[in-house]
Amino acid sequence: MSDEEHHFESKADSGASKTYPQQAGTIRKNGYIVIKGRACKVVEVSTSKTGKHGHAKCHFVGIDIFNAKKLEDIVPSSHNSDVPHVTRTDYQLIDISEDGFVTLLTESGGTKDDLRLPTDESLCSQIKDGFSEGKDLVVTVMSAMGEEQICALKDIGPK
Question: Which UniProt keywords apply (predicted)?
């Protein structure tokens, strides 16, 4: 036996995984899938028949849930694909800073101020207009694979 000490560095984050495996043949339209390392919503699925060399193939067309880019992938239907854990959380909007960051009130009463206004122009202007009118606004934040973005807005009445 050797007397050497071995040190292992863990490169993974602690806690839950950002994705989970799911058989490609069971992923359906309106589900989620990871294509080229991006979390996507599936907008189209087509499956080819088994050919001379075995596997039926699934052709996925997905829209990136954060930047709305269209991505495509082809996977054998019997193989596993990564599916992102996608969560939606509602926060009350407290403030919007000049540089585009928002301050949100969490359920526990703390604040969250690491999110920017959404890139979607119409949603961004709705949030700014509603806030300047003094309305109580609740924003829905979608998060997946370490990314977060405001994806929806609810008006819960005047302050």
Answer: Hypusine, Initiation factor, Protein biosynthesis
> How far, CA to CA in Å, does 82 sit from each of 22, 27, 79?
6, 10, 10
Whole-prediction pTM: 0.77
Domains of the chain: 19-84 (2.30.30.30), 87-158 (2.40.50.140)
Alpha helices, H only, the chain: 121-132
Question: Cα(14)–Cα(89) distance, rounded to whole angstroms?
Answer: 21
Q: How many residues does the chain have?
A: 159
User: Is the pLDDT confidence value at 98 over 60?
Assistant: yes
Burial class (CB in 10 A: 0-12, 13-18, 19+), 62: buried
Write phi, then psi, for 13 (nearest 5 degrees): -75, 150
**Tokens 């596993």 found at:** 80
Tokens found for residue 110: 């703390």
